[in-house]
Write a structure and sequence with these properties.
About 45% of the residues lie in helices and about 15% in strands. By secondary structure, it is α/β, with parallel strands linked by helices. It has a single domain, classed as 3-Layer(aba) Sandwich (Rossmann fold). An 8-stranded mixed β-sheet has the order 3-2-1-4-5-6-7-8, sandwiched between helices. A hairpin with a 2-residue loop joins strand 7 and strand 8. Helix 4 runs parallel beside helix 5. The relative contact order is 0.15.
Length: about 230
């Protein structure tokens, strides 16, 4: 039986490329996107499944869970990729609170909510791989006051990775944070040194770890990073 993977924010950028690479690995891929039209086109081009999903909508999480249960009866890998970077020019003292909240809701609380929705299915089958797509900007060792919302959101996401890993200790469920590298996308910009293929590689690695693979770590392209 083919393993099933779900990727959030997969209509473009690193998420789309990750969906493509997971399909090439033989997975049933559920490509999700908040824009149904864009998602359907992307999924059709790749020959994968599509389901609309806005990570900020609780109703959307419930509908997605019920779709996965009904159509597949299992989920083997969850790639929490959807993310926003709204505060390139903001500092901790002047960033509007709304930007802080929206960024944390999208980049931090949504991956946690989705994990909590799908973890019971993974625990039932004692198999699961969860990839939280993080960033070096969330590394505490290099913290400063630029892009405060994005940094905090990824720092907290890394904290969630550590907590979840502890919560599933002893089970065959491997949860890790992955920095894709600085990648040419709408978010990364044209001057980024890495292409999509290299950016998605580390996410695919973490989503397909063998049973004795690492748990609760932070990685780039399969190499461990400092928090
Ligand atoms: N590119 C880099 O250099 C880099 C570096 C470090 C980490 N990352 C991380 O890698 C991940 C992917 O980034 P990217 O560069 O591929 O970004 P991107 O090209 O801007 O794509 C972001 C994706 O997230 C989706 N998204 C945003 N808000 C959403 C919501 N509420 N519900 C559902 N989907 C939503 C977007 O959907 P729409 O098309 O509808 O907006 C889009 O599909 C992010 O978590 C980012 O923080 C990227």
């Amino acid at each position: 039986m083919k393993k099933v993977v779900l990727v959030t924010g997969a209509n473009r950028g690193i998420g789309l490329e990750t969906a493509k690479q997971m399909k090439a690995k033989g997975y049933e891929v559920i490509l999700t996107s908040r824009d149904a039209k864009k998602g359907e086109v992307a999924a059709r081009d790749l020959g994968v499944h599509f389901h609309p999903f806005d990570v900020l909508s609780e109703k959307s999480i419930a509908a997605l869970k019920s779709y996965v249960e009904t159509e597949f009866g299992r989920l083997d890998a969850l790639i929490n990729n959807a993310g926003i970077l709204l505060d390139r020019n903001d500092h901790i003292l002047d960033i509007p609170e709304e930007k802080l909240r929206k960024t944390l809701d999208t980049n931090t609380y949504a991956p946690l909510a989705l994990t909590r929705a799908f973890l019971p299915m993974m625990l039932d089958q004692n198999y699961g791989r969860i990839v939280n797509v993080s960033s070096v900007l969330g590394q505490i060792i290099s913290f400063n006051d630029y892009t405060p919302a994005y940094r905090l959101s990824k720092l907290a996401l890394n904290g969630i990775t550590l907590m979840l890993a502890d919560a599933v200790k002893g089970k065959n469920i491997l949860i890790n944070s992955v920095h894709p590298g600085w990648v040419k996308t709408d978010m990364g910009g044209a001057e980024a040194p890495l292409g999509l293929e290299e950016g998605a590689r580390g996410l695919v690695w973490a989503a397909t770890l063998p049973d004795n693979g690492p748990q609760g770590g932070f990685f780039q392209d399969g190499k461990r990073m400092e928090w």
